[in-house]
Design goal:
The complex is a heterodimer of chains A (114) and B (116). Chain A contains no helices and eleven strands. Chain A has 114 residues and is mainly β. Chain B is an all-beta fold and 116 residues long. Chain B is 0% helix and 47% strand. In chain B, strands 2, 4, 5, 6, 9, 10 and 11 form a seven-stranded mixed sheet that branches. Classes of the chains: A mainly beta (114), B mainly beta (116). Chains A and B meet through strand 5, strand 9 and strand 10 of A and strand 4, strand 5 and strand 10 of B.
């Protein structure tokens, strides 16, 4: 089992729709959760971070965390063609020698078509 | 302000050669990370520096890989006797380092290494 798994893509949604991206993780010690966006040929860019159970909203983006189910998701409302990218889920353990290390999922490719 | 910079942007080398990849973090960031990203995969952790010391080098795949950060700023990733399997994009990231588990990591543009 991979440490961080994301829903298989690619995911294609029409402009204006809600895109739902999902991620599960295996390490119960994980404390911090991040969603990065990566455009083709570019470096990852942080779009959301979440540390507590529940929802966190930032503009059109909502991150959801359920530590009991070891599940984190990202919802993108009113999807735009400019949202087309690979979305990477990353988790960090808050203690031990791995403190600060990000473990990434394989990424989900999102395409928003006009 | 300036972001994380990496040089070179592209490096093509022959199998068996030695390469050095450089990372210049955001000014004031004490934490520095190296990751490697293969095509179609997420970045894979290699090593983490807090200041000048390697706090976690558990991701280095073998002893051909080595990284230094002698003055707590610029870091160099060194790969000896390169192999075709080393071909990937090598990403550097930095953060403030005050709370490594929650600090935002800012990524550089990466160095694309191709081993022929």
């Amino acid at each position: 089992q991979k440490e961080v798994e994301q829903n298989s893509g690619p995911l294609s949604v029409p402009e204006g729709a809600i895109a739902s991206l999902n991620c599960t993780y295996s390490d119960r010690g994980s404390q911090s959760f991040f969603w990065y966006r990566q455009y083709s040929g570019k470096s990852p860019e942080l779009i959301m971070s979440i540390y507590s159970n529940g929802d966190k909203e930032d503009g059109r983006f909502t991150a959801q965390l359920n530590k009991a189910s070891q599940y984190v998701s990202l919802l993108i409302r009113d999807s735009q063609p400019s949202d087309s990218a690979t979305y990477l889920c990353a988790v960090s353990n808050a203690g031990g020698t791995s403190y600060g290390k990000l473990t990434f999922g394989q990424g989900t490719i999102l395409t928003v078509h006009p | 302000g300036a972001g994380v910079s990496q040089t070179p942007s592209n490096k093509v080398t022959e199998k068996g050669k030695y390469v050095e990849l450089r990372c210049d973090p955001i000014s004031g960031h004490t934490a520095l990370y190296w990751y490697r990203q293969s095509l179609g995969q997420g970045p894979e952790f290699l090593i983490y520096f807090q200041g000048t010391g390697a706090a976690d080098d558990s991701g280095l795949p073998n002893d051909r890989f080595f990284a230094v950060r002698p003055e707590g700023s610029v870091s160099t990733l060194k790969i000896q006797r390169t192999e075709r399997g080393d071909s990937a994009v090598y990403l550097c990231a930095s953060s403030f380092g005050t709370s490594p588990g929650t600090d935002t990591q800012y990524f550089g543009p990466g160095t694309r290494l191709t081993v022929l």
